[in-house]
């Protein structure tokens, strides 16, 4: 057996002052990196200062014209009665892609079927739960 060592106080750190001073004295000098100042260009905001009534009316006219254009486009789309159907889109699936898709669906069905079988067996208690065995083994090792 090992000889008993004195217990160290928890939560306390004892610094080796000599080692720290030695490291500090032998620390290499670091080169100062001089970088130019980043140029600052203040953002010029057109909205600063008083707004002329003429400019205000031009902006509102542009926005209202844009809103009117959107309304008419939406009205035309609704009145045309066209319903966009994704099934009408052209598909670029090759035979290989279709086979891969079917194989994926089959694997997925098998996977979820196994999950349900395992769940059913665990509920019935017919399947041994590995975690119980592991706990028993750990308990036996400690004793």
Structural commentary:
Residues 1-60, 122-143 are annotated as: Disordered. One of its GO terms (molecular function) is protein phosphatase inhibitor activity. InterPro entries: PPI-2. One of its GO terms (biological process) is regulation of signal transduction. Residues 1-17, 24-35 have a biased composition (Basic and acidic residues). With 143 residues, the protein is mainly alpha-helical. The chain has a domain at 95-143. The chain contains 4 helices and no strands. The chain has helices at 17-25, 53-80, 95-124, 130-142. The longest helix has 30 residues, at 95-124. The chain is flat and about 85 Å long.
How do the helices and strands line up, and which of them pair or pack?
Blueprint: H1 17-25, H2 53-80, H3 95-124, H4 130-142
InterPro entries: PPI-2 (IPR007062)
Biased composition (Basic and acidic residues): 1-17, 24-35
Region (Disordered): 1-60, 122-143
């Amino acid at each position: 057996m090992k000889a008993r060592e004195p217990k160290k106080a928890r939560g306390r750190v004892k610094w080796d002052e000599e080692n720290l001073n030695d490291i500090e004295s032998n620390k290499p000098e670091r080169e100062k990196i001089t970088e130019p100042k980043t140029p600052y260009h203040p953002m010029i905001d057109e909205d600063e200062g008083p707004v002329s009534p003429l400019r205000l009316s031009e902006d509102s006219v542009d926005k209202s014209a844009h809103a009117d254009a959107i309304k008419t486009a939406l009205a035309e789309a609704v009145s045309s009665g066209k319903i966009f159907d994704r099934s009408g889109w052209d598909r670029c699936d090759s035979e290989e892609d279709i086979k891969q898709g079917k194989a994926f669906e089959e694997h997925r069905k098998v996977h979820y079927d196994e999950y349900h079988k395992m769940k059913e067996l665990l509920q019935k208690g017919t399947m041994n739960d590995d975690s119980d065995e592991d706990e028993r083994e750990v308990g036996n090792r400690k004793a």
